[in-house]
Structure formats: structure tokens, C-alpha cells
């Protein structure tokens, strides 16, 4: 397995990975129409990913197998309004792995490569117990803040200290 920074030429493969992992992670948690709509807008999503990789303040890491097939990705970066919200300045924006890689340690490796043991925060979809359990093992806890996103209710999780090994 290899973890590396995303480059603009990864936009198409990253889009396909993103579509697949959402289907795997959110089936039954969000409306099927949302998942289908994302697939119908694949070409626009490719261009969005290309722009995000080229010009965003967030960074993206990709995990691939020995054959180069993408298995997961992480997005992270500074949050411009973190200080106003009283959370760490580093936000984990996304962390996804293919279902076939669940339980292999890939999520932990991506998280470690992205934010190491730094204080950080993230948003997790209500009911996504697999993710909640994972993030708790990594030292994140709910801080009581929620927001409503087009896909559903999200809860903020914060990690202030480096987790114990």
C-alpha cells in the first residue's frame, strides 16, 4: 500500500473512488436519490476535484494498492473560522476507504499521514457508527455541536491531544 499526495491528474480516479465510498459508507443513512444524483454529475465532480487539488488550501492524500488502484483518501487543512468556534485550527475534511479495506488499518494510516497526532476536528454523519467508533479510537469526542447538511445531521468531533498508542 502506498500513500501519496493527490495531483490534478488523479481527479477522475478520485471522483470514482469518492462515488464508490459514499455508496458503501452511506447506503441506508442518506437518501438513495442523493447517491444517484452524485453519479449523474460525475463529469462535473471530476472538474471540481481537479480545481480542489490545484488551488485549495486543503491537502489530499491518496492510498493505493500495489497495482495503483485507489483504496482511500483523506482531505485536511486549516479551518478559517476554527478560532471563532473554539476548536483546533486543523480540520479533517474527509477520510474514506473502500469497504474491502475496512479493518485493515488503512484508515488509521491515512489519518496518521494526514494529521498525525495533531489536535483537529471533523464532522460525522448522524448514525454512521462505523466512523464514530473509528474516530473515538483515534481520540476524537463529540463536543455537542451539530449542523444540518443536505445529506443529513452532522455532529462535530474534536481531538485536543495526541491519542495514546
From TrEMBL:
Keywords from the named record: Acyltransferase, Transferase
Signal peptide stretch: none
Domain called N-acetyltransferase: residue spans: 1-165
SUPFAM superfamilies tied to this protein: Acyl-CoA N-acyltransferases (Nat) (SSF55729)
Stored InterPro entries: Acyl_CoA_acyltransferase, Bact_Acetyltransf, GNAT_dom
UniProt xrefs under PANTHER family: AMINOALKYLPHOSPHONATE N-ACETYLTRANSFERASE-RELATED-RELATED
Protein name per the record: GNAT superfamily N-acetyltransferase
Native source species: Nesterenkonia lacusekhoensis
